[in-house]
Amino acid sequence: MKPTILLLIALSAPLCLSAPLAGQNKPAAKPNFVIIFTDDQGYNDLGCFGSKRIKTPHLDQLAKEGRRFTQFYVPSSVCSPSRAALLTGSYPKRVGMHRHVLFPQSNYGLNPEEHTIADQLRSVGYATACIGKWHLGHHPETLPRQNGFDSYYGIPYSNDMNHPNNQGHARASSDDGWINQDKQVKLWNTPLIENEKIIELPVNQRTITRRYTDKAIEFVTANKDKPFFLYLPHSMPHIPLFVPDDAFDPNPKNAYKCVIEHVDAEVGRFVQTVRDLGLANNTYIIFTSDNGPWLKYAHHGGCALPLRDGKGTTFEGGQRVPCIMWGPGRIPADTTSTAFASTLDLLPTITSLSGSKLPAKIRVDGCDLTGVIAGEAPSPRKELLYYSARGELEGLRQGDWKILVQKMRVRKGRKVKKGGNTKILLFNLAEDVSETTNLADKNSEKVKVLQTRMKELDNEITANARPVWRKK
Ligand code: MG
Predict the structure, then answer these.
(1) Would 255 be classed as within a structural domain?
(2) Residue 172: its pLDDT value, please?
(3) Would you say residue 19 lies in a domain?
(4) 3, 40, 174, 431: which is deepest, by most CB within 10 A?
């Protein structure tokens, strides 16, 4: 390879500055890892992230014993790309999973050749399980067991999608549906899958959060004597919303609140099991959400305040999510980190915490947050690209500056399409977390630098993108 080409790659590589890992106590045994990933829960939708309305005592307790992250991002504002990024430590575009969410009729999915967190940990002796919503391909070739997990129990795509071709589904969410929970369950034909087999159709979504918890408890109990990785992506609070009878509040205005409070209670039940098994001092629990709240569903959706907008957008409300990390004795208790961080960083971080190393050939976009988690180092993450829900490059955060280059929407007859005109927005997030003041006109030089940089980073990803799995 010519030196000039080498230089180009070095300059355009996503920037993770290496951080010192001083003082990190190496555990005697390999620690366990649990990732609890809720669906469409907003930045504000936890007591410890500012909600006055929703009561989350168990998650608040987890934060009290651990660390809150207030600048934690997912690399997409919708489900499938966000999940691909978490598990592979790579931008969705790098793994071909950037073009919006999957549907029951989709013919592609996460390539089993990708190296997921589960692949990494299984390669060094961990028991691995995925319990919950997968949404990275429902074909047997792309389900969790082909992507590093020993077992799978959950729904293969969103709970508002119908087997086998998404035809005939109900209205997405309504007060009437909330009030008549049992009737609403039957209006959706979402399957429940064990490993690769449908075991319930339609799944009783009223009890799904509780059953995921039961399975999670069963898994950690069975594996208490060996290292484990549990990926627990709850299918709630994605609409349509459901809770079991004993958690039901008949007032539809409280639907979303009721669902989050039920998730909170179930997280509490799971964490209690971890404590009862004597595993608290050797287990990391990371709680976060796959994207921002679905605001158009009003009280069936959440809240991202003080952030702007929500799911489906590249404003902060779409991609900055609540995050709690818990690991008694390893993560300082009752602390808040403002470190710039992302789900992209979990693969390298967990790999490092497990005392293992990623295979040399694996190229990822994540940074090792080990020092940040221990509370001893500044964040190695300096930049994050933003892509639209359909995978088009739309912005970059670099330090406190954020640029968005958005294509304007134009109406052509009955269709709304994105036109040729673009709108450039520039925000300083340290001074304006709500993205209210566009500073682009006053900072044309900054705009130029960031626009050049975001294209440079995206060009590298496009040039090195890996193939998605496709059904032949
Ligand atoms: Mg989601």
Answers:
(1) yes
(2) 72
(3) no
(4) 40
21 or 310: which carries more pLDDT confidence?
Answer: 310
Q: Which residues are catalytic?
A: 79, 135
Q: Which of 1-10, 211-220, 415-424 has the lowest mean pLDDT?
A: 1-10
Compute the distance from residue 320 Cα to the ligand 1 centre, in Å. Answer: 13
CA 238 to ligand 1 center in whole angstroms: 7
For the chain, what is the mean pLDDT? 93
Pair (65, 201) in one structural domain: yes
Residues 400 and 337 in one domain: no
What is the distance in A from the centroid of ligand 1 to the CA of 290? 5
369 and 313 part of one domain: yes
- Cα(12)–Cα(451) distance, rounded to whole angstroms? 13
Q: Could you tell me whether strands 32-38 and 415-428 are parallel, antiparallel, or unpaired per DSSP bridges? A: unpaired
Chain centroid to Cα 438, Å, comes to 28
Question: What spacing in Å lies between the alpha carbon of 286 and ligand 1's midpoint?
Answer: 17
Please give the pLDDT value at position 173: 76
Q: Report if residue 10 sits inside a domain.
A: no
What six digits make up the tokens of 322?
A: 């609540």
DSSP class of residue 272? H
Burial class of residue 137, CB neighbours in 10 A (0-12, 13-18, 19+):
buried
Closest CA to 468 of 71, 97, 17: 97
Distance (Å) from CA 282 to ligand 1 centroid: 30
pLDDT-derived band at 417 (thresholds 50, 70, 90) equals: low
Of 382, 405, 425, at which residue does a domain stop?
Answer: 382
Whether 138 shows a pLDDT value over 90: the answer reads yes
